[in-house]
Design a protein that fits this description.
Layout lengths: L4 H4 L2 E3 L3 H20 L6 E8 H4 L6 H9 L9 H14 L1 E2 L7 E2 L2 H4 E4 L9 E8 L5 E11 L2 E4 H6 L16 H11 L3 H10 L4 H23 L15 H11 L10 H17 L3 E3 L9 H12 L8 H18 L4 H4 L5 H15 L4 H13 L17 H21 L8 H14 L12 H4 L4
Parallel strand pairs: 2-5
Antiparallel strand pairs: 1-9, 2-6, 3-4, 6-7, 7-8
Helix pairs in contact: 2-4, 9-14, 10-12, 10-14, 11-12, 12-13, 12-18, 13-16, 13-18, 14-16, 16-17, 16-18, 17-18, 17-19
Length: about 450
């Protein structure tokens, strides 16, 4: 199994990797399919199902589909151009994707939120259609947004995990047990094995430049969040808090009035800064998702800014180690909140961050695996119940606590010798089973939990 670090960490836009980035990616794929087809389309249509319908408006799924069908993609997203395109589409009732001419598309009529029908493959399902001049469907494809910006067609989902594209890699571990055995046999760290796998697919310079770019976008996202205040969009009137907290922390420096536990506020504020940016629709990096995008950058920023002897040269090892753990979770369970609750998002992110931190602080592969297990174990059962379907409450603070748990898990693991009671593989399997058993109303539908017990107005 090979999942590139650049698939796990993708530059995109908020507020959701599965509900915003995924549908936009699906729309781009459908346009490519239409360009290759023999049909001459006159219009487009889309229907959203399951979680994409229930929390679609709060997660900007409608906007993502509209812009995606107009030719926008997450990695090349331009906010000003998108705003202008949205205004034109609403006024003219048509989109003009490159190479396809003007296609009829009225968002009020052609974008359907189907609350009654959940598609069988995944909770995040959507159907994209091309129509002829009479409005009859001439081309159709079912897409599933499976978390972290990953998108599969219905056929690809059926093929599932049996599909392993590309040439073999040197260290194809499918489980944590295999990962540890390969590390022992090879004498390499987890990052070293992951790096070798990456180099088998792309030049060393590309890997170095790519991981540097990932951290640059993450770090810039933190900085924007720490310097921006105001009210987040969506109707809940949630106030940005990261700037105020950060300003207070800066003011307290050197006053000898700071309690030791204030370091937790630094961890939290870095994560909150990212997730406030995400909630505002800003540029973020899936880590492994948008809803959990703050945990890993906050942990890495904590390492660089607060740990004595920390070195920027360790950033790539951090990201590669984290990506290796994230790949195991995605392969053997899920990183989708709509599939397994927030344990699959913030829980996975915390495990990834804990592993990365443990690695760059000198942890052995066994200690790294232990750190990931500790972090994931203590998120088991966490539901995804965003108030009003927005990636704001409880999501923003939850990322801060996920970072704190990641750092604590890494510290605990480093205090041991890597031997522990619950293997990471068992913890991942438990998360998968828990996600299967979890009621749908707690899996990113906003039909249960905080979403119904907190007033939305």
């Amino acid at each position: 199994m090979f999942l590139s670090v650049f698939e796990m960490f993708k530059v995109g836009i908020g507020p959701s990797s599965s509900h915003t980035m995924g549908p936009m990616v699906a729309a781009a794929r459908f346009l490519d399919m239409l360009r290759r087809s023999p049909f001459h389309a006159a219009g487009l249509r889309a229907s959203l199902h399951g979680s994409l319908a229930f929390t679609g408006v709060g997660h900007a799924t409608d906007r993502a589909v509209i812009l995606g069908l107009a030719g926008f993609t997450p990695e090349a997203y331009d906010h000003d151009k998108a705003e202008a395109a949205m205004a034109r589409i609403k006024a003219d009732h048509e989109v003009t994707p490159e190479g396809l001419g003007a296609l009829r598309f009225d968002p009020e009529k052609d974008l359907i939120f189907d609350y009654d029908r959940t598609l069988p493959g995944h909770a995040n399902g959507m159907i994209l259609m091309a129509t002829d001049a009479q409005g009859d469907v001439i081309l159709q494809e079912v897409y599933y947004s499976i978390g972290g910006g990953f998108v599969l067609t219905e056929d690809e989902l059926v093929q599932g995990k049996a599909t392993d594209e590309g040439a073999p890699v040197p260290y194809p571990f499918h489980s944590a047990a295999e990962m540890l055995e390969m590390a022992k046999t090879s004498g390499l760290t987890i990052a070293g094995m992951k790096r070798a796998n990456e180099h088998s697919r792309r030049p060393r310079a590309d890997v170095e430049a790519g991981t540097a770019r990932i951290w640059q976008v993450m770090n810039e996202c933190i900085d924007r969040g720490l310097t921006t205040d105001g009210i987040l969009p969506g109707g809940l009137s949630v106030r940005r808090r990261a700037k105020g907290i950060h300003d207070a922390l800066i003011a307290e420096r050197g006053m000898n009035l700071t309690a030791p536990h204030t370091i937790n506020d630094w961890m939290s504020v870095y994560a909150m800064a990212v997730n406030e940016e995400n909630a505002a629709g800003g540029q973020v990096v899936t880590a492994p998702t948008n809803g959990a995008a703050g945990v890993l950058p906050a942990t890495l920023r904590y390492y660089l800014d607060h740990v004595p002897g920390a070195s920027p040269s360790q950033v790539e090892d951090f990201l590669l180690t984290a990506a290796a753990i994230g790949g195991l979770v995605k392969w053997n369970a899920s990183i989708s909140g709509a599939e397994a609750g927030c344990q699959a998002e913030v829980g996975s992110a915390s495990a990834m961050a804990a592993a990365g931190l443990c690695a760059v602080m000198g942890g052995t592969p066994e200690q790294v695996e232990n750190a990931a297990e500790i972090a994931l174990e203590h998120h088991l059962g966490m539901t995804c119940d965003p108030v009003k379907g927005l990636v704001q409450v409880p999501c923003i603070e939850r990322n801060g606590l996920g970072a704190i748990k990641a750092i604590s898990a890494a510290s605990l693991a480093l205090r041991g010798d890597g031997q522990h009671f619950v293997p990471l593989d068992a913890c991942i399997e438990t998360m998968r089973q828990t996600g299967e058993d979890m009621h749908a109303k707690y899996k990113e539908t906003s039909l249960g939990g905080l979403a119904v017990n907190v007033p939305n107005c």
